[in-house]
Amino acid sequence: MLKKRTAFFVVFCAAALTVTGWAVNWGVSVSADYVHEIRKNIEVFGLIYQEISRKYVDPVDPDKFMKAGINGMLETLDPYTVLIEKEDNTQLQIITHGKYGGLGMVISTRDGWPTVVEQPSDGTPALKAGIREGDRIVEVDGTSTKGMKVDDVAGRLRGEIGTPVNIKIAREGEPQPLEFHMVRAEITVHDVTYSGLMRDGIGYIRLSRFSKNAGYEVSQAIRDLKAQGMKSLILDLRNNPGGLLEAAVEVSENFVKKGELIVSTKGRVDGSDKEYRSEKDPQAGSLPLVLLVNGNSASASEIVAGAIQDLDRGVIIGETTYGKGLVQTVVSLNRDAALKITTAKYYDPSGRCIQKDRPHPGAENALGDPESDPFADSSENAGAPAVGAKEERAASPAFRTKGGRLVYGGGGIKPDIEVAEGKLSRFEAALRYKSVAFNYAVAYAGKQPGLKQQDFQITDNILADFRQFMRDKKFTYTSQSELQLAELKKTAEKEGYLQDIQGSVTALEQALQREKEDDFTKSQDFIRRELEQEIAAKLFGSRAQVEATFDDDPLLKKAVEVLSSTTTYTAVLSSEKNKQ
Question: Which of 26, 168, 297, 551 could join 177 in a cystine, given CB atoms 3.0 to 4.6 angstroms apart?
Fold first, then answer.
C-alpha cells in the first residue's frame, strides 16, 4: 500500500513539473506567476495526501480520500464541472454514440425493485424474449436486485455485444419468477419517442433527449408527417434535459433558413469561440411551429427554443426553462473515468446568455430529487407567483429578436405564452411517487387480454376497484397539515405544553384524517388521467399512452388553439407587441 501511495505522490510531483506544458497545449494565456501558483498548490495537495495517508490515527481509504479532495475542488465551481465515473461515463457514451450493448429495456424503481416501465423496443433481445412492461427484475446473473440502484442494475444489463446475461423476472399473475437467458445486442437510442398527427393537420413530435441521433430522427419524423398531410407542427421538449450541442444545432436546422445563426459559444480556451449556423435547407422551414417547454427543459433544449424564439420562427408555450447556458468539454482520464469541464458559455442569436446562477448541487438539488423529496413540486405555495419576479425580470439584460420583440437573458427561456402544467397535491404526488396507478395497471391489464383500444374508458367501476386496490396495498401518505401538526407537537412537548393541549391535538388529528378521506374524491380527475395513461400503455403500447394525454394536457390544448388560428399565431410573433 505504501508503494502505491508513494507512486501516487510521484505522479503529483510530475504533474506539477509539467504545468507549464499543459497550459501551453491548452492554448490558455497565463502568466508565469499563475503557473507558479498552480505548481505550488499541486505540490502542497500531494504532500497533504501523503502525510494524512501515512500518519493519520486511523487507516484512510486512499480512493475515498482522494475523491473527497477532488469533489471539494469541483464544488467551488459550477454544478456541471464534475468527475464522471463508471455508469455515468457509460451514459455519456450512449448519448455521444447513440447506441450501446444491452437488451433494450427501460427500467425504473417501483416498490424497491427495478421494473420495466416501457414496452421493449422492436427487434431488441428483451422484446424477442417476451419481456413485458411491469416485469420486475429480481436477479441479474444470480445477484439479487432488491434495493439496488437503477444505475447499478442498468450497468449489469449492459455489456459487450454478443455476451450472455441471465435474469429472473417477477410477473403479475405468475406464482414463481421467470428465467430468461438473453444475448446482448446493439441497441440504438431513440430520441424521438412519439410522432404523429393529432387533428386538422397538426403534427406532434416528442423529443426526449439530444443524442447523436436527434437531428436525423426529427428530420425523418417531419418527412413522414408531411407525407401524411401535416400543415403545422408541435415539438415537445418538456422534461428534455439536453445532450449534445451539435445535436441541438441539427434539430434546429430542420426549422431555420440555411445560413442563419443558431447559437454561438465564447470561452477562455483557444477555439472555444464559435458560431454554429444552419448548413442545410430546412425540412419544415415555413410550417407554423410551436415548441412546448417547462422547467426541466434544459441545455440543448434551450438552444433550440432560444434559436426558434430569437429568429421569430415559432411560438414557445409553457413554463420558463431551466436556465443552463454553459458548454462542457469531456476529458478522458482513464477507461472508467472522465472529467466534464465547463469551457464556454453559449449565446442565442440575439446575443443573450440564458444561464441562471444557482448553488452547487451539494447545497441545493438543482433539478430536484424525487427519492429525497417526492413532494418537491407540491409545496403549500405551489402555483403562487415568485416573490420579486417582476424585479428579477426588470434587472435581467434585454435583447431583441430578429423581428424586434423583447427577450431577456440570465434565467432560462421565458415562453411567448405562459401556461402552467399544474402542481400536484401531496396526495397526488404520493400516488405517483409510489407507482400506485402503474402497479394497478399492470394487474388490470393481465385480466383484460382481449380489450380493444376503442372500447376502453375509465369507468366508475374501475375507479372503485382502484380505490380498493389502494386499501389492499395499504397506501398511506402524510399531508402538509399533518407535518405541521407533528412539528407543533414536538415544540409543545419541548416546552412542556403537550399534556395540556393533548385533547385539542387529538381532535385536530381526527379532523385531518376525515379530511384526507375526501382526497380521493377531490383528485378524481387526476386519478382518471393517470389510470387512462398507465392502462393504455400496458394494453396498447407507448403510442397509446402518449395519445391518452392529448385531451387533458393544458399545454397541448393551448398549442392546438394557437396553431388553429393564423391570426393568433401571427399576433404572438408580431414585433409590435413588445416594442418600447
Answer: 168
